[in-house]
Amino acid sequence: MEEFAPRRGTSRHFTTADGVRLHYIEAGDGPVLMMFPGWSQSAAMFRAQIDGLSDRYRVIAVDPRGHGDSDKPDHGYNAHRIAADMRELLLHLDLHDVALLGHSGGVKYLWAYWELFAGERLRKLVIVDDSPRLVDNPAWSEASRAEIGPMYFTGDLDRFAVQLMAPDGAAFTDVAIKSMFGPGFVANNAALMDWIVAENLKMPRALAIELLYATSGVDWRGTIRRVRLPSLVIGAEGSTHKATVLRWVAAQIPGARLRIWGREEGGSHFMFIESPDRFNAELAEFIGA
Question: Which part of the chain is the AB hydrolase-1 domain (predicted)?
Answer without folding.
Answer: 31-276
